Amino acid sequence: MADQHIPTSADVGDMYDRSTDLLSEVMGGNIHLGYWRNDADDASVEEATDTLTDMVAERLALTPGLRVLDIGCGSGKPAVRIAGRWNVHVTGVTISAQQAAVAGARPEVGENAGQASFQEADAMDLPHADARFDRVYAIESFLHMSDRATAVAEAARVLRPGGFLVTANPYQRGGELSARAAEVVAANRRLLQIPPIGDVDEYVAHMDKAGLRVVETLDIGENVRRSHTLAAEAIRSSRAAFDGAFSAELSEAADIIERFGELPEIGYGLIVARRP
């Protein structure tokens, strides 16, 4: 029987309230996967996660002074990096009060180009006016949305005509999952508060329905796969700081993350869409 776990926004927020500090430490200050060019690439986790941030930013076609929305801003590091390197202003939103506090405490926070600001908000009901932003991006956040069609529609609503939306997400590659793969995916979904993962066609369909025109889809699943192994290793190493049940929970979480990362049925896609 298919796993019907559908997390609420509160579930996702609570998960990140509890795990943001650990995940940020594990992933080099970011809370998303990293990109390695090939097996010989010896980049650190921080370098690899920053590279993925840059890959998203490069697809936004940024010019100085633009106003950008980061949906699911995590620790705030991607927003601050993009704001500073491209001289734009980034507004980050997150469902997690802890993430909003961590991101908001960064010294680079402000309202000018080259700075970022942060707020707690639900991406399925954004508190922004129509066409408020020149660009929108979402790194591993639509993955958590219980109603992705609404989340994409909200992103399109606040994006001005001519602007770009760029998303980065794990997704299921075509075909049915094997019994083993389905078990691993279900465990990962419960751990990280993820509804059914979906495939690239689902994301494209949501963008089409929202009036966006998809201009690029790129599967970089093999380039990010190392992230899961390194994250699992780091989580296991962190167990020494904890006792009892929580230490056991960390061990189980590390195993789930590592097994999920090994699945060839799971890809990772960059999708670029433009609002006509």
TrEMBL record:
GO BP, sorted A to Z: methylation
Position of the signal peptide: none
Q: Which SUPFAM superfamilies match?
A: S-adenosyl-L-methionine-dependent methyltransferases
Is the keyword Transferase in the record? Answer: yes
Q: Name one GO molecular function term.
A: methyltransferase activity
Q: Where is the Methyltransferase type domain?
A: 69-166
Ordered alphabetically, the record's keywords are: Methyltransferase, Transferase
Q: Which Pfam families match?
A: Methyltransf_11 (PF08241)
Give the domain of life: Bacteria
Task: Say if the entry is tagged with keyword Protein biosynthesis.
Answer: no
Q: Could you tell me which PANTHER family the record lists for this protein?
A: GERANYL DIPHOSPHATE 2-C-METHYLTRANSFERASE, ZGC:194242
Name under which the protein is recorded: Methyltransferase domain-containing protein
The organism encoding this protein is Streptomyces amakusaensis
